[in-house]
Structures are given as structure tokens and as C-alpha cells.
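User: Reviewer 2 asked us to show a designed sequence for the structure in our supplementary figure. I'm pasting the C-alpha cells here. Could you produce the per-position amino acids so we can include them in the response letter?
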């Protein structure tokens, strides 16, 4: 990694350390999601959202309607990532790796994740997953994101993060983050996560363990965004595995 971005990593790690990570893990285990309030400042949110207009920052542009993903669009950042995105991705990963390893143990899955993100990315690259996955999404009135899972290859980190860059009620209305959880032989449970500008929601990529009367069992999750009623909504998605 470029040594010039190490100060950004240090600042991000210091900011992230201020959260109660025991409480975050408890919320992830209980509800399947947890919110980090004001992870980014309003200025950082505005600066990141403004990158959308400059194609030079991105490796690809996806229009959702062409693929049946919903209505709206997003762009995948290319490497090297913007300093703030790279720093947050690197600093968040160790906090979530311990949760991911605990989940895999509870679900009787053999895979364990290294504590440092650089080591995990090397594992991705060794199996041919070399394309960056952090993305910037844009929604306008009528846009929505169908329920989905962000799996891009055989190797996937089971937790991801989305950060709201716009101000609900001012920059846009509608556009709520939605998480559904399908438990065996039960109807789906829906979680609507209220976010403010700069808030980050942590949630599973595809499944997680839930404690039952006879031990832990595995549930399947999908996430999406409800219809935007007015204005424009920008979000950054931080996915920790790379894509094939």
C-alpha cells in the first residue's frame, strides 16, 4: 500500500475506536445490523458524493434497470481507492473480522479470516478476485434497489457497511435502508434502518447465526433500498472482498 495514505488510516482507526464495539457485536447478533452514528462528517459526505460526476474515479458504471436490480445507478471505485474510503475500509475490517470468525464458528463453517485487511485482500487476489468492490450509489425520484446480496466470487467476507451521504428529509425523502431475514420454516423478518447523513450501517452480506432453543442455526439475509420519493440520495458501500 502507498505509505502516503497511512496518516488517513491512523485517523480512521482512531475515529472508529471511539465506538462501543461490544455493543455493535451485540446488536449484530440480536438484530442483524448495527449503526455507527456520524462515522463521516457532513463535509466528507459532500466531498464523496461529488466524486460521482468524475468517471476517472471508477472502473465501471451500472444502470440497475438493465440488469433487473431495481432502478437507479452506481459506480465501482477503481484502485487506488479515494484515501477516505481506503482508510475506512482498512480500519473497519479488523473490528468486523472477529465477529465474522465468531459467526463462522457458530455456523460450523471452517473458514477463518485474517485480522488485517491487507492479508485478506491477498487471499482474494490469489483466487483471481482482484477488482475493487467499494461503490458509490445514486438514486433520484422513483429509484429503488431490489433485495440482494453482494457476492462477487468464491471468497466473500460476511459483513459489509453502507454509509448514507445525503440528508434524509432535506436532500431526499423515502429511500429507507431495508434488511430482510429468512429463518427456516418461518416468514421473513424485515428491519428498516433509519440513518442520518454520515451514519454507517453494518450488516451481513448473506447469512448469520441465530441462537435457537437447540443451538445456533443459519439465517439468510438480503438488503435493499425502498423507493425514493423526492430529491437525490447518495450512498457509499464498503465491501471487504474483491471481485472476480
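Assistant: Here is a per-position design you can include in the supplement:
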Amino acid at each position: 500500500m502507498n505509505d502516503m495514505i497511512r496518516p488517513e488510516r491512523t485517523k480512521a482507526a482512531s475515529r472508529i475506536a471511539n465506538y462501543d464495539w461490544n455493543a455493535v457485536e451485540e446488536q449484530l447478533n440480536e438484530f442483524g445490523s448495527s449503526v455507527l452514528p456520524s462515522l463521516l462528517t457532513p463535509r466528507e459526505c459532500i466531498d464523496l458524493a461529488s466524486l460521482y460526476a468524475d468517471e476517472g474515479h471508477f472502473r465501471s458504471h451500472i444502470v440497475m434497470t438493465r440488469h433487473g436490480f431495481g432502478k437507479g445507478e452506481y459506480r465501482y471505485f477503481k484502485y487506488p481507492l479515494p484515501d477516505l474510503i481506503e482508510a475506512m475500509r482498512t480500519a473497519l475490517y479488523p473490528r468486523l473480522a472477529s465477529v465474522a470468525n465468531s459467526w463462522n464458528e457458530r455456523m460450523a463453517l471452517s473458514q477463518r479470516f485474517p485480522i488485517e485487511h491487507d492479508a485478506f485482500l491477498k487471499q482474494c487476489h490469489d483466487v483471481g478476485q482482484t477488482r475493487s468492490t467499494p461503490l458509490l450509489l445514486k438514486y433520484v425520484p422513483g429509484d429503488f434497489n431490489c433485495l440482494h446480496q453482494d457476492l462477487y466470487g468464491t471468497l466473500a467476507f460476511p459483513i459489509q457497511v453502507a454509509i448514507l451521504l445525503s440528508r434524509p428529509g432535506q436532500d431526499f425523502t423515502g429511500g429507507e435502508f431495508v434488511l430482510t431475514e429468512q429463518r427456516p420454516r418461518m416468514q421473513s423478518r424485515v428491519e428498516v434502518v433509519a440513518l442520518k447523513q454520515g451514519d454507517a450501517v453494518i450488516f451481513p452480506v448473506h447469512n448469520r447465526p441465530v441462537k435457537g432453543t437447540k443451538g445456533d442455526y443459519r439465517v439468510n439475509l438480503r438488503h435493499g433500498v425502498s423507493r425514493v420519493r423526492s430529491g437525490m440520495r447518495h450512498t457509499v458501500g464498503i465491501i471487504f472482498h474483491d471481485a472476480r
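For the response letter, you might also mention the following. Residues 1-5 have pLDDT under 50 and may be disordered. The CA atoms of residues 172 and 231 lie 4 Å apart.
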